[in-house]
Amino acid sequence: MKATFSNFGARLIELMVPDRIGNCSNVVLGFNTHEEYVINVGNYFGATLGRVAGRISKGVFNGGRLRFQLMVNEGGNHLHGGKEKSLDRVFWSSELCEVAGSQAVQFSYESKSGEGGYPGDLSVALTCSLTNINELIFEYSAKASLDTPVNITNHIYWNLHDAGATSVLDHELQINADKIIKMDAQLLPAGGYLSCAESGMDFKKLTKIAHSLPTNPTEPWPGIDNTFVLSNKTTGELTESAILYDPTSGRKMTITTTEPSLQVYSANRLGDLKGRHGIKYGQGNSICIETQRVIDNQVLPDLQSIVLKPDQEYFHKTIHKFSAE
Hints:
Blueprint: E1 2-6, E2 11-18, E3 24-26, H1 34-39, E4 47-49, E5 55-56, E6 60-63, E7 66-69, E8 78-79, E9 93-99, E10 102-111, E11 122-130, E12 135-144, E13 148-149, E14 153-155, E15 172-175, E16 177-183, E17 189-195, H2 196-199, E18 207-208, E19 225-230, E20 239-245, E21 251-257, E22 261-265, E23 273-274, E24 280-281, E25 288-292, E26 307-308, E27 314-324
């Protein structure tokens, strides 16, 4: 395997993975030049998201004994850290290194108090390792000077067949979840949960994506953009959470994470774009599987707060293990 990164947004540019007969090809969407990433920054290709990944209604964070106004950047709501100095739109410091005998790159960024509207300084680090057993590992850590919410993930668009040239609907997906968060038309929590079976998105066993799309889609393309709450999961415990499999190439990706939920998105709002190596991208030609936490919300009082205190350290580890069969 071979991984290519950029320090603009600490993003994954390309990942070369062998298929069942040993041929390596790219499995993630992206662009050829830095300028194209800047022009298409709102699609978050391969980027690290934060300080808080996800949507916050009207930009008002309310949780963990905090209440404050954030910058709004999507229909009056706050998305993925805002549009100025969010983690995907800044240059991180970076250096190549070895971690436990594996090739790695270490990224770091100092987010200053007030960036995006967030309180306190936040020191963020990300180590991306590529192991000799075909694992791509992301390890995030952060320390804050004041109480502040933190929820960091990566927005990789996956297509294990041809890096976005054709649909992912023939891919098979498995998620260790029995329920999703009930969402409104703005993709904000509406209060409570739906069983995966009730929603039509039941991936408890390996299932072709085309067979399990939402029964009442509100998206411009009728795909998935939902938060799956992982079953029997404690935040910080590293457990296998999802599998993505392409029957054509035989490539399989197994995701193990410390995080309690997955945001799954099938590129429903991705317009026609020319991407890396001239491939034309579109809706449903890729899928994001984002390991993360659920943002504090008054309609979901049962979930743990994402507020990080100065005496704590934020830590998030996700392993993408690749094989072929």
